[in-house]
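Researcher: I'm preparing a figure for a lab meeting and need a structural model of a single chain. I don't have an experimental structure, so a prediction will have to do for now. The sequence is pasted below. Please return the structure as tokens so I can convert it later.
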Amino acid sequence: MSRIQLEISRQYERLVEPEAATIALFQALEDSGRFPISGGELSVVFVGDELIARVHGDFMGDPTPTDVITFLPDPEMDSAGEIVVSVDHAISKSRELNQSFSQELSLYLVHGWLHLAGYKDETDLDRKAMRAAEAEALKILGEAGAGDAFFVTQQD
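Model: Understood. Here is the structure written out token by token.
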């Protein structure tokens, strides 16, 4: 990732070494050339529902947990943006949908990346374009063999 310097913060103890999986996922998206984002430092923070609810409340006025929050780039600070992901949300949603945790977490990272690439999800039309882009991005990840390597340890 030549234009992007990835900064990964794992503030969710049960998430097992997400660095390699995150790098592979973003490398596949960048290499595809399909969803370009600004260069600079891209920060990815893996958190639980409690912390993402606090961030959601502080920055968006909604103190409830959510899946992913994306902060857009700030070129003056050489920032490519920040993606904050709830691992708790991915665990519960993957169980609800009967799909793998890794696929659900990968979807959240893809969603954040797509926001950085200019996609929105505020209107029905925006959401339709976002869902189509998510499907395309997940297909790119599948073809690259990326996005299926996230794991959590079992609860005590």
